[in-house]
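Input structure tokens:
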């Protein structure tokens, strides 16, 4: 096509779409480049040493005292969040009785145990997010369930499946070591335990270790500080519902504008004398439109509705096609835009390249809508412009909230936009940003969790397999697994997570599929009295090759994204491709697991 023809096509696109795609591509690239940093993931500070208090548990009602354990158990599950709960539940359904749960917190709940900040709630509708809804006969109160209700629901799952029968709370694993002679795992903890386990399920969770920004002077501030995952209600007053009366005479600064900040900023703005929101990159803020569950609708649902709804949502957010959009919200709108484009074409081009181009335009449409929403809700033009996200929707986890943007219309709330550069430094009196010091009484870190760091660092313990080989050593140049859940040299050990598995925005769905798969294998070994199950060398090598080849499909998209944990803080090329998710998408991955189980030969595993 000639340059004149290309120009004419671009003008036609602009007239039809209401925006100029080329101009947006340029804008996205410029905004991304502002935020690129040489230090990538190293920009964050570990919560160790003088910062270790940031991971203390403020929610403990009492300290559990017990003697160290040195017994033997069939299955030990590490982690009491949805992953661990689902593993325990599916194994109970399979008739496995000896299950011990290990959890460093004071109860079940995982991320919902720790994240009790004001306004904490789910950003995916509860009818697909909450696992085991039919099994428990549970009706969520509303479309987007509150965090404390999710915490309570987690406890209900544990009670339903008798997971409180053998649980060690307030217990941190320090090492998991394979004994070849015993053909058992030896699990050491901070409570002096040396328990033996035939099988170990590691469900440490992707959002379990808080991170702090590596800002100069972070240790010099003389005021009060805390991380949102350990909210200090003694200081702020109030509760998860808000009412932060302890802040009425306080100047508060919050660092971070991701999903957590979006939910708690309205409550901080309402309670504080003055609130300063320090922003490096704005989040995409879509309409939430929460509402109570329609009892008549809920009671009309037919058996099997929950899996059907989860699958429908997952296929659509993964870019697949469904006859009906059962959830029909901001998460699935891009694919609806794409379908409209295709239907409006007389002879639609459905080649991969054409669909990629159409998907980009559908994404542009969605983000133009998001930016227009900012204009409509934020009165100050300068603040509104700073709050507009210029990147593809799924470069960062999209947010859904109806009070966040209007909070910036309050006279006591100031947006401190750093144009992608971040804070200059922290002083004993406050924060310096854009060359200006802002004095503060308290700094709230809404800076998220470690995601792209080394695996054992996020777990908090080392896994040591055959011949003393540690997982850190084996994975030094990248993860190596079969189906993301087994790693050769670490027999009878199952890893739940997103590395080399199918990623979905609705993470509990992925955990449920993994829990069913792991249970199938454990049940087979126990029923057949098989002592050891391990990934075959060739099968693992082939899986790694598959992961690398499919990961290349997402390289272009991630490279064009603004920095964040989805693209290794703007350095996707430095992250080994083999640490990626299954690139064909989670629907294809779940189908692959289903067909593997149906085939029944346990291909790729060595069982003895």
């Amino acid at each position: 096509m000639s340059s004149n023809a290309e120009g004419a096509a671009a003008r036609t696109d602009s007239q039809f779409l209401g925006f100029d795609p080329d101009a947006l591509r340029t804008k996205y690239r410029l905004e991304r480049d502002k935020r690129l940093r040489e230090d990538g993931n190293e920009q964050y500070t570990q919560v160790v040493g003088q910062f270790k208090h940031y991971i203390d548990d403020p929610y403990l009602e009492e300290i559990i005292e017990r003697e160290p354990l040195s017994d033997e158990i069939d299955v030990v599950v590490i982690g009491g969040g949805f992953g661990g709960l689902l593993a325990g539940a599916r194994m109970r359904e399979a008739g496995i009785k000896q299950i011990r749960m290990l959890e460093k917190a004071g109860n079940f709940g995982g991320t919902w145990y720790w994240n009790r900040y004001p306004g904490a709630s789910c950003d995916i509708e509860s009818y697909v997010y909450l696992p085991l809804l039919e099994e428990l006969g549970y009706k969520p109160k509303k479309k987007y369930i509150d965090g404390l209700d999710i915490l309570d629901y987690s406890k209900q799952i544990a009670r339903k499946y008798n997971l409180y029968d053998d649980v060690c709370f307030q217990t941190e694993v320090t090492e998991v070591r394979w004994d070849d002679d015993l053909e058992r795992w030896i699990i050491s903890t901070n409570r002096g335990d040396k328990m033996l386990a035939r099988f170990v399920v590691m469900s440490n969770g992707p959002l379990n270790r808080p991170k702090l920004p590596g800002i100069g002077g972070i240790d010099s501030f003389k005021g009060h500080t805390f991380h949102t995952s350990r909210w200090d209600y003694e200081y702020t007053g109030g509760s998860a519902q808000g009412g932060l009366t302890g802040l009425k005479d306080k100047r508060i600064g919050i660092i971070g504008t991701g999903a957590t900040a979006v939910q708690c900023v309205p409550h901080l703005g309402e309670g504080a004398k003055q609130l300063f929101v320090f922003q490096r990159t704005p989040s995409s803020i879509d309409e939430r439109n929460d509402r109570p569950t329609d009892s008549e609708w809920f009671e009309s649902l037919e058996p099997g509705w929950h899996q059907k709804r989860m699958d429908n949502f997952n296929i659509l957010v993964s870019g697949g096609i469904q006859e009906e959009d059962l959830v029909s919200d901001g998460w699935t709108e891009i694919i609806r835009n794409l379908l409209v484009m295709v239907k409006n074409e007389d002879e639609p081009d459905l080649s991969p390249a054409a669909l990629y181009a159409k998907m980009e335009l559908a994404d542009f449409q969605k983000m133009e809508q998001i930016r227009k929403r900012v204009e409509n809700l934020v009165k100050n033009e300068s603040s509104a412009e700073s709050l507009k996200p210029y990147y593809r929707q799924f470069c960062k986890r999209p947010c859904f909230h109806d009070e966040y943007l209007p909070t910036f219309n309050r006279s006591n709330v100031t947006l401190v936009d750093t144009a992608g550069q971040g804070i200059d430094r922290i002083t004993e009196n406050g924060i310096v940003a854009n060359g200006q010091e802002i004095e503060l009484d308290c700094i709230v870190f809404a800076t998220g969790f470690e995601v792209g760091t080394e695996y054992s660092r996020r777990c908090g313990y080392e896994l040591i397999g055959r011949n003393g080989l540690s997982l850190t050593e084996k994975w030094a140049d990248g993860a190596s697994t079969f189906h993301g859940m087994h790693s050769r040299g670490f027999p009878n050990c199952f890893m739940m997570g997103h590395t080399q598995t199918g990623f979905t925005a609705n993470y509990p769905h992925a955990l449920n599929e993994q829990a069913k798969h792991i249970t199938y294998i454990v049940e087979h070994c126990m029923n057949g009295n098989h002592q050891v199950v391990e990934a075959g060398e060739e099968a693992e090598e082939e899986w790694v090759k598959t992961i690398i080849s499919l990961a290349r499909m997402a390289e272009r998209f991630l490279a064009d994204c603004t920095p964040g944990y989805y693209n290794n803080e703007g350095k996707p090329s430095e992250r080994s491709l083999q640490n990626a998710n299954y690139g064909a998408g989670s629907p294809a991955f779940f189908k692959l697991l289903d067909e593997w189980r149906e085939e029944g030969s346990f291909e790729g595993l060595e069982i003895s």
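Confidence is low (pLDDT under 50) at residues 1-12. Residues 118 and 242 are 5 Å apart (CA to CA).
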